[in-house]
Amino acid sequence: MPEGDTLDGVARRLQPLVGRVPRIAAPQPRHAPLRIPERLAERAVEAVEARGKHLLIRFEGGLVLHSHLRMSGRWEVGPPGRPTRRPRDRAWLVLATDDLEALLFNGPVLELLTPAEARLHPALGRLGPDALDDGFDVAAAVARARRGPAERTAADVLLDQRVLAGIGNVWKSEALFDRRLDPWVRVGDLDDAALADLLGRAAAMMRAHVASGAARRPVRVYGRARRPCPACGTAIRARAQGDEGRRTFWCPACQAPATPAAGSRRSG
Fold first, then answer.
1. In CATH, which of 1.10.8.50, 3.40.190.290, 3.30.70.120, 3.40.190.10 is domain 138-219?
2. Are strands 45-51 and 23-25 parallel, antiparallel or unpaired?
3. Per residue in 230-254, pLDDT tens?
4. Per-residue pLDDT tens over the stretch 208-226
5. Which residues are catalytic?
6. DSSP reduced 3-state for 16
7. pTM of the prediction?
8. Over the range 204-240, which residues count as b (16 or more CB within 10 Å of their CB) and which as e?
9. At the fourth CATH level, which superfamily is domain 4-126?
């Protein structure tokens, strides 16, 4: 699933649309009831922003195009007429000017929201602090994590967009490895300092990657199952997690479970 840094990159590439009136098409019959081209006709783009894993394109009059890529979606942005990875006639949405063309493929979330619908949106309204915000509030993220069940794992909490928005499988696995933390440790067995350290580190790693401008993420364990750990040489393992079966990658030696005597507890 694309993570917050991917959506941030898309939002940056779409900034040339701000202040302009794009040509809009929504070719797939499933989106015909939304009447996206008709409702946005002759409206200029006022802002493009990424919020966690969500992309919001705001138009004159307060209408907001909202997309979420989930596991299968992709934005392709570039000059008009360029080759695309997928056939153009399969695009869900097309935004075009004379010098820029943005195509959204799959998703499965594409909706046009009124200002009231955007304010009351069930997913957008519950998002936690954005991992890419310069003023990321780790204390607020910790407080949100404590509202959930104490038996949730650290890996589960990192993926909970209500705790912090934007982290997915890649930065989850990388942050847990960076802190040498067992992915399956219960969040209730982490004190507030350890939890803040983990959540803050995940956000900081994503921000550092965005700031670097690098095209590829500097992964050490993600996607490297059965390959040697870069720290100790032990074979990296992978396990499906949660109802959606998203995979966590970790080193069983560097991230071994703490012994009961060494286990920490929630402070307070």
1. 1.10.8.50
2. unpaired
3. 999 999 999 987 656 689 999 999 9
4. 999 999 989 999 999 999 9
5. 2-3, 53
6. helix
7. 0.91
8. ebbbebbeeeeeebeebbbebeeeebeeeeeebbbee
9. MutM-like, N-terminal (3.20.190.10)
